[in-house]
Amino acid sequence: MIMSYGGDLLEVALLIVFSRSGSPTPVARTPGDSVSAWAAPAADGEAAINPRNPCRGCTRLVSIAVMARILFDTATTINGWIADTDNSLAWLFAVDGGEHPDDGLIPTGLGAQVEGSTTYEWVLAETDILAHPEKWADFHGDRPTFVFTTRALPTPEGADVRFVRGSVSEVLPAIREAAGDGDIWVVGGGDLAGQFLDAGALDRIALSIAPVALDGGAPLLPRRLESDRLRLVSAVAHGQFARLIYDVLPGKRAVPK
Ligand SMILES: NC(=O)c1ccc[n+]([C@@H]2O[C@H](COP(=O)([O-])OP(=O)(O)OC[C@H]3O[C@@H](n4cnc5c(N)ncnc54)[C@H](OP(=O)(O)O)[C@@H]3O)[C@@H](O)[C@H]2O)c1
Fold this sequence. Notes:
Layout: E1 2-5, E2 8-11, E3 17-18, E4 26-27, E5 34-41, E6 47-50, E7 60-65, E8 70-76, E9 81-83, H1 90-93, E10 110-116, H2 117-126, H3 136-140, E11 145-148, E12 161-164, H4 168-179, E13 183-188, H5 190-198, E14 204-209, E15 218-219, E16 230-238, E17 241-248
Parallel strand pairs: 8-13, 8-14, 10-11, 10-13, 11-12
Antiparallel strand pairs: 1-2, 1-7, 3-4, 5-6, 5-7, 9-15, 14-17, 16-17
NADP nicotinamide-adenine-dinucleotide phosphate (NAP) binds next to strand 8, strand 9, strand 10, helix 2 and strand 13.
């Protein structure tokens, strides 16, 4: 979380901020939110924050931006596959609205995308992007895309692609810096999303569930994650798709399979 205080920039690790409602009780806020609050320097030099204005001793307006959220947002079958055994998404594109999804099925407010090399190579191959680099922007805009890989892979001309490898916690600071205030979209695959989960760096899981079952393929999330870690935010029908959004709650780290 970054707090701007009286023109200075302080990086502080506040886990709670105060609600705008005027309640003096600290409440947890979702990463990605931002609030303004009145603050007074406390005796120990740290800022005491209160959203109410005025408050005793509060002299400066501070703005608090909670760190960008990290989202795993994907289409999936009803039985938990995000690609078939040939890494094909033909089953998804065959669904009404699957090829040109509703706006409500695509995350917004993004600052960066993250994907594994299988997903990246699928994107390159599917639309022949190396020969037609202008198509890159259709899916990625001008956002930086971080591709996890141990190999040397090609980059479409002009695309902001950054190849990374190793543990999520080591790479995450660079991803956060590139994303700025925007959210970070973990596009897939499922194990990469699981690596973010293992690192305690997954805030939200958004699923667009297609009316399809497959008999194998790329798994949605090969981790054990129980109900104490997931809070349902919304469940909405979008044509043939069911859109489920869950916040991921902090807890014991999930154990990789
Ligand atoms: N339904 C949807 O909306 C949706 C969304 C996303 C993806 N997909 C599809 O789902 C499938 C996912 O494939 P996948 O499960 O193989 O996953 P992937 O995450 O796309 O790629 C996995 C590969 O990424 C590299 N990698 C992963 N973690 C790494 C790390 N920490 N450091 C370095 N390299 C790392 C490794 O390859 P190398 O080191 O060998 O390069 C690994 O084999 C793809 O077919 C994709 O197109 C579907």
